[in-house]
């Protein structure tokens, strides 16, 4: 579950509005339309391919009780047609030119993308901009799609023991913050979702001044800006609070360890431990999120990482043991350590072994060799990611959507390389403590018999 989320490099900042054009500057290029749509274009001429991503700064963090899952439900409805494009036609047109398209919803944002030959970018822009304002949500399509969403929840969460444990851990770890609600929504809310819920969400959040258009690939920035103005510039902005103006949602301090047991069909127990930790807010002056990132890589960044080396290969107390942390988020962070104990071991024994590894770092720190190896791996992985135009677009969109800048990518990489062994030890000592810890254990229940087994028993 290594879920580090820093991406590689960014370059020089260029700010241009339609009213005032500055001299041409380095890649990527940044623009702001009069209606508030932010556009970031990054040239990559290695192949005649382009990525278009449209990011809306609205995710499950912005939902309220009773309508959990509406952000994800609306994502599904965005493929059901507009007043200009019949249901299914969007996907058919992209596929017809050899392109790919999809979407994703997270706690912090919702994004839509197309990857295709650069000559088809005008068509992709027309299609994507059209559904920014002209979506048609009919009762018939909504009712059918909600059945799809509920089945998705059953398959990905309710019938997946580890996913169910994770969901319940998050719901327990956070007392008040909306991160406690699952992105896909609670089943009761999905069962009672009304078409008006989706329509209201669309009208409120799907507006150019709440969106970021990211274009990466074999494009000419000036020509692409003109296309964007023609496609997206015709829509007016809605009154909507910027990220910095939205009501603060502060999680109350945790004052002791939280524990829960989840019963679900499974072969083996499973353990997940979540510590509350900070995330990046000031990329230049924060240091703890960078140290936490290095710590997660020391524990679970490669085959020689501590959890795998000690718990899996040496003592064999675990079949698997992992750590993960994402420093890029609108809300509070969680540092995760999880694992599956070996067949002759218990979740309690695995927890004690994990605690022992943490204590070793708290008492003795990490070695300079470990630090150098992890830093080299971090730099290499971020560099390799940039071979992909899609990864480049993801880097830009994700940073911008949570309130940072795409320019912060360079700062992040530089700051990661300045982390010291003492700082890694310090964050382990400060944050990997019981007062910020939630522990969830899977109590495996008998697996249901398969249809084949049932047939044989008759």
UniProtKB/TrEMBL annotation:
Residues 39-184 form the Peptidase M16 N-terminal domain. It comes from the Bacteria. One of its GO terms (molecular function) is peptidase activity. Pfam families: Peptidase_M16, Peptidase_M16_C. InterPro entries: Metalloenz_LuxS/M16, MPP/UQCRC_Complex, Pept_M16_N, Peptidase_M16_C. The keyword Signal applies. The keyword Cytoplasm does not apply. Keywords: Hydrolase, Protease, Signal. Residues 193-377 form the Peptidase M16 C-terminal domain. SUPFAM superfamilies: LuxS/MPP-like metallohydrolase (SSF63411). Residues 1-26 form the signal peptide. GO terms for biological process: proteolysis. Belongs to the peptidase M16 family. This is Putative zinc protease. It comes from Nitrosomonas stercoris. The lineage of its organism: Bacteria, Pseudomonadati, Pseudomonadota, Betaproteobacteria, Nitrosomonadales.
């Amino acid at each position: 579950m290594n879920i580090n989320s820093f991406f590689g490099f960014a370059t020089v900042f260029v700010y241009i509005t339609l009213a005032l054009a500055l001299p041409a500057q380095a890649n990527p290029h940044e623009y702001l339309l009069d209606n508030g749509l932010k556009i970031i274009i990054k040239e990559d001429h290695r192949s005649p391919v382009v990525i278009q991503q449209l990011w809306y700064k609205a995710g499950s963090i912005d939902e309220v009780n009773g309508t959990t899952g509406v952000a994800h439900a609306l994502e599904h409805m965005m493929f059901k047609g507009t007043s200009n494009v019949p249901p299914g036609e969007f996907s058919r047109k992209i596929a017809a030119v050899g392109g790919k398209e999809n979407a994703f919803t997270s706690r912090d944002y919702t994004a839509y993308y197309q990857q295709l030959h650069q000559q088809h970018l005008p068509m992709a822009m027309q299609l994507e901009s059209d559904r920014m304002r002209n979506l048609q949500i009919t009762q018939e399509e909504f009712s059918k799609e909600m059945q799809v969403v509920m089945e998705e929840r059953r398959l990905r969460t309710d019938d997946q023991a580890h996913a169910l444990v994770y969901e319940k851990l998050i719901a327990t770890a956070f007392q008040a913050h909306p991160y406690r609600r699952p992105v896909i929504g609670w089943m009761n809310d999905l069962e009672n979702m009304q078409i008006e819920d989706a329509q209201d969400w669309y009208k409120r959040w799907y507006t150019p001044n709440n969106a970021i258009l990211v274009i990466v690939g074999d494009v000419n920035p000036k020509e692409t800006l003109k296309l964007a103005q023609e496609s997206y510039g015709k829509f007016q902005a809605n009154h909507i609070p910027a990220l910095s103006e939205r009501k603060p949602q502060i999680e109350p301090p945790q004052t002791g360890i939280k524990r829960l047991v989840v019963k679900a069909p499974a072969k083996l127990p499973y353990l997940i431990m979540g510590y509350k930790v900070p995330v990046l807010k000031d990329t230049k002056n924060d240091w703890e999120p960078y140290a936490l990132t290095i710590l997660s890589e020391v524990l679970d960044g490669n085959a020689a990482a501590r959890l795998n080396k000690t718990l899996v290969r040496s003592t064999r107390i675990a079949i698997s043991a992992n750590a993960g942390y994402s420093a890029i988020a609108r809300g509070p962070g969680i540092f995760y350590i999880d694992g599956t104990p070996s067949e002759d071991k218990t979740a309690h024994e695995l927890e004690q072994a994990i605690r022992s590894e943490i204590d070793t770092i708290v008492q003795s720190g990490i070695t300079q060799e470990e630090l150098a190896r992890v830093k080299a791996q971090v730099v290499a992985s971020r560099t390799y990611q940039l071979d992909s135009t899609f990864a480049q677009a993801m880097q830009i969109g994700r940073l911008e959507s949570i309130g940072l800048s795409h320019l912060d990518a360079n700062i992040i990489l530089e700051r990661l390389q300045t982390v010291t062994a003492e700082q890694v030890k310090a964050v382990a000592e400060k944050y990997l403590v019981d007062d910020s810890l939630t522990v969830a254990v899977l109590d495996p229940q008998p697996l249901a018999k398969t249809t084949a087994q049932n047939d044989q028993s008759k």
